[in-house]
Amino acid sequence: MVNREKEAAGKSAVELVQDGMVVGLGTGSTITYVIKHLGEKVKDGLDILGIPTSHQTELLALQAGIPLTTLWEHPAVDLAIDGADQVDPMLNCIKGQGAAHTREKIMAYSANRFVVVVDESKMVNVLSCPVPLEVLPYALRLVERQVTKLGGVPKLREARKKDGPVITDNGNFVLDVDFGEIIDPKKLDERLSNIIGVIEHGIFTNADEVHIGRKSGVEVLKKS
Q1: Disulfide-capable partner of 182 in 79, 114, 127, 203 (CB 3.0 to 4.6 Å)?
Q2: Could you tell me the CATH number of the domain that includes residue 213?
Q3: How far is CA 34 from CA 82, 130, 155, in A?
């Protein structure tokens, strides 16, 4: 059932894509459905260019027949579509379970319109899941000390099918930091951005709209 809700949300966001657009493609399970439906539209004649945010997304997009480009060639993106791990009522998000949040945030801020797609289980009253930080390996211990001073509990993300830590597409570590309930996401966003050694963190405060797949259909929330 959850997969059906994810697919409904992804399909809803794809309806925003128009001929001639440059589209940022996020990373994650819900984006798999976005790529599927976007690929079908491309086969039916939709003329677009996609920009992936990870190797995983790049491979899926190529398999779906979506023509790809880069931010070097098209720095102004018309629309970026991505998933999220949690979304609050103000459309603040936590992202990064796929360890692609640095490129995802670059894409989100490169886009004229940033759309998030989730199933209803990702909607919460208060953000509370651990915040992923992409960290320069050389700075790991320094970052751990700095986030601890902010009240966070850091944990280095370990790989599941190999020994050692998860390595991002950019060659860095991921530190998952538990802050408990995040009452003021924008304040924490600013504090994490000022930590030396953090490449990027998983708090996103710039979503323009969220498409939520529910059992009853798709609900669209827009930033007022």
Answers
A1: 127
A2: 3.40.50.1360
A3: 9, 26, 31
